[in-house]
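Forum: Protein Structure Q&A
Topic: Joint prediction for protein chains with partners

I've read a bunch of threads here and the consensus seems to be that you should model interacting components together rather than docking separate models afterwards. I'd like to see that in practice. Below is the full input, 230 residues plus whatever partners are listed. Could one of the regulars post the assembled result?
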Amino acid sequence: EPEVTQTPSHQVTQMGQEVILRCVPISNHLYFYWYRQILGQKVEFLVSFYNNEISEKSEIFDDQFSVERPDGSNFTLKIRSTKLEDSAMYFCASRRGLAGTTTDTQYFGPGTRLTVL
Amino acid sequence: SQQGEEDPQALSIQEGENATMNCSYKTSINNLQWYRQNSGRGLVHLILIRSNEREKHSGRLRVTLDTSKKSSSLLITASRAADTASYFCAPADRGSTLGRLYFGRGTQLTVWP
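Posted by a regular:
Agreed with the consensus. Here's the joint model:
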């Protein structure tokens, strides 16, 4: 069964450094998402991406964050200058996007645990 | 916001018993999805129920949806220790075609052998 994959599984970085989290969505999917989960808290939406542009972003997704689909398979989340509070599990998700509706399943990757020291 | 709120926050049962978790949401939806998360791991999709469906089954899972009450329930029958996890409902807004999901704090299910 196709699945969303994410690399690395764990990333440790120093405060102020840039990090890039990588995701490979399911191959025929059209909508892509990033979510994060701070330890012990809810899963929070960051951004959605469709047709090579951001379609929606939350208030968390400030100028320090950016997303890119550099080729036909990868979807990346960049944090330019990491803060301590960026430490969290970051999940990528994708869905097929049938007929422009939301009546289809969103599949999540296993996550990247980001630790900012 | 349109987040799902799960109830109870924690549920502890013996193997073989049934587990019922409830979810409430605020506005009209296109669908509602249930996910499971084992501690420190990713979100595993369990089942999606569309707004025009009232009940859906998948193996030992049964999901109901009552749009008039803006609520859903997830029933796990004949539970196993391996079902121990956090369970989340995620409603998808009717007003959006973008599919953003809103998660609550989940129900932490513990199944004792």
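The longest strand of chain A covers residues 43-50.
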